[in-house]
Amino acid sequence: MSLCHCLECQRRTGSTYGIAAFFARDAVKANGETNCFTRTADNGSKVSFYFCPTCGSTVYWESERKPDLIAVAAGSFADPQFPQPIQSVYEEHKHPWVNVPS
Q: Could you give the CA distance from residue 101 to residue 13 in angstroms, rounded to a whole number?
């Protein structure tokens, strides 16, 4: 589980950060129709976001930088008991009132 405070994740989610659960690529099977948006990340690699064409919610994404992993939006699980994040990145863009678990 990871929080990302980068400005692109803030824009993508309409919130103060993005949050994802990372899984081994071979452990994830996506079902249903998706649309894709690809952008260049801060590190120069491509990141592809797959979203629901009906409601627009980002469901999962994949990065050239981590080809063996798939990131799934934590909100896709709709589970308040989902594990808390274990890392937080791009904290230089973190809103000062956001509390990050230690």
A: 20
